[in-house]
Amino acid sequence: MPSGAFSYALLLALAIALLVAAFTDLKRREIDNTLNLGIALSAPLWWWSLDFGWSDVAWQLGLALLTFGIACVLFALRQMGGGDVKLLTALALWFAPGSFGQVIVLMAMIGGGASIAMAAFNMERLSGEKLRDALGWVVALGWVWAAACVVYALATHQPVISAARLDALHKALPQAWMLALATLALVIVFLLGFRHIMRRQKSRLPIPYGVAISAAALWVMGEQALSTPIVG
Fold first, then answer.
1. Burial per residue of 126-162, b for 16 or more beta-carbon CB atoms within 10 angstroms, e otherwise
2. Taking the domains of the chain in order of start, what are their residue ranges?
């Protein structure tokens, strides 16, 4: 089994590759195939550094295959680019299922928040629709704020809504039907605002999901490296 320094060198190389992926995706809206291939082909070295057995390798391959299948569906629905599919599949070879789940959730929150914010800026302004535009902006800001709260909660290992806030909410809405009605109203407002944002898009907006994927993976990597140092 190689030394811990070798394992950290692999993590450093992966971190650099993710930074490059984020930069190229932000600049050119694409991620190079050679970069994704390099990340995938380096995964066996990572398995070797962690002394993986055949069952561990099988889990990683299965996770990558499942990720590729789901990501291909999103690609077919035009919700994800081809480079994003390849990057996410390659990263599935590096992360344990639990850690990869964290990457997916963080990616969805970061990417979702960025997508709705960019869509709001991409709205076409029409006369007589100032109220609808305002509703769209309120929904966009609310979505970004909610995504930021979830990301912060995941990053700090705290609940999204504290017990004190839940108690205050319960006191403000003591009856269950009141809470259900408030939730329904919030959903309706969100759907109306989101519908307006989508209807008023000036052009198809390429979302740099590679940035969200890279940011999520870097965060999980850093958190694990600091909390469970690699020994060797």
1. eeeeeebbebbbebbeebbeebeebbeebeeeeeeee
2. 1-100+207-232, 123-202
